[in-house]
């Protein structure tokens, strides 16, 4: 009499479980190896769970050799492109996209909660409004700049107003070295009630009233303009729930 085995084959696992396992693999392995194993694995890797996060460096590397990949791999790319709505985390630092490209991209990113567009210098306030309107689940937005790009340019709050008017669910916002003023910052923190962390390092047009901010937004952590990257460890946490820098101030 045969004894029933409690051990199940890999091909018998439910697709969602397989997909969660496959997320631990590199992008290239997901695109070139997994679809070749068996039909159940191919079906699982084409599912949305495998594509909620994409490391853009791996993605770019894989894309350069797409011509060498198999038909199934091409199918993987097609599937990802058509199902961008599954993405939760997208990081595109230093990308060369303009407002038009951002508008087309974000139409498919309704589930994004983390977006990093740092050092993307061609993006304007119109693109920011589009991102906010299309990505209604956005909680973390990183749009840091390099000081050499903003140095000597006039202050303006159009981009800050765009963030304030469309990204009310933000919990963390990084806008290092942006050309905003007090008005823009106050508009953001008053329009984003869930905001917990605001990174304003290098935003020299911002001179907030520390006591006023602490009283009105007691749970907000603020990294102020004068803070250097090497000084972050010198922050102290106040009993009222707000972080303020107490280390040295950078001299211009």
Question: How would you explain this protein's 3D organization?
Answer:
Residues 60-74 and 230-252 have low confidence and may be disordered. The chain contains twelve helices and nine strands. It has two domains: 11-84, no CATH class; 87-247, Leucine-rich repeat, LRR (right-handed beta-alpha superhelix). By secondary structure, the chain is of the alpha/beta class. The protein starts with 14 loop residues before the first helix and ends in a 7-residue tail after the last strand. Strand 3 (114-116), helix 8 (125-134) and strand 4 form a beta-alpha-beta unit. The longest helix is centred in the first third of the chain and has 12 residues, at 71-82. Strands 1-2-3-4-5-6-7 form a seven-stranded parallel sheet. Strands 8-9 form a two-stranded antiparallel sheet. Helix 8 runs parallel beside helix 10. GO terms for molecular function: ligase activity. Keywords: Ligase.
